[in-house]
Each structure stands twice: as structure tokens, then as C-alpha cells.
Amino acid sequence: MDAIVQYLKSNAEWIFSGIGVSALAVLAYLLRMAFKRQTSQKQTVAGGSSAIQAGRDVKINSSGKGD
After folding, report:
1. What CA–CA distances, in Å, run from 48 to 35, 43, 44, 45, 63?
2. Are 52 and 60 in contact (CB under 8 A)?
3. Segment 7-45, tens digit of pLDDT
4. What are the helix (H) ranges across the chain?
5. CB 8 within 8 A of CB 15
6. pTM of the prediction?
7. CA dist., res. 60 & res. 44, Å (int)
8. Is 66 left (phi over 0), alpha (psi -120 to 50) or beta?
């Protein structure tokens, strides 16, 4: 038991600096995932159709009736 305590005392800076670097890397990863923009929209168009895809409201100006 004394050998383990002595090892920890003599290598504490080395051991805990590695833990600190790992903790910062995990924190940076979690923050990056939290603020990452999600792009999950998918669209399939067939038969000569035209399609518009947007993440928010879309207003299309046309010269037809009903505007």
C-alpha cells in the first residue's frame, strides 16, 4: 500500500495533468456536439416536379392570380 501511495506522490503531476487534458478534450467535444447544426432534411423529387426545401418559412413571389 505504501508503494502505491509513494508512486502517486511522485507522479501526481504527470497523472493528473493527463486527466485534466482528457477532461478538457471531453468538454470541448460535448460543447461542439451541443452547438453543431443539425441537417436532417431529406427530399426526393421525381417525375419532372420542382421542389423547394428550407429550414424555415418560404415565400414565393409569382405573377399569377391570388397574390
Report:
1. 37, 14, 11, 8, 22
2. yes
3. 888 888 877 787 878 888 999 999 988 887 766 667 778
4. 2-10, 12-35
5. yes
6. 0.39
7. 20
8. left
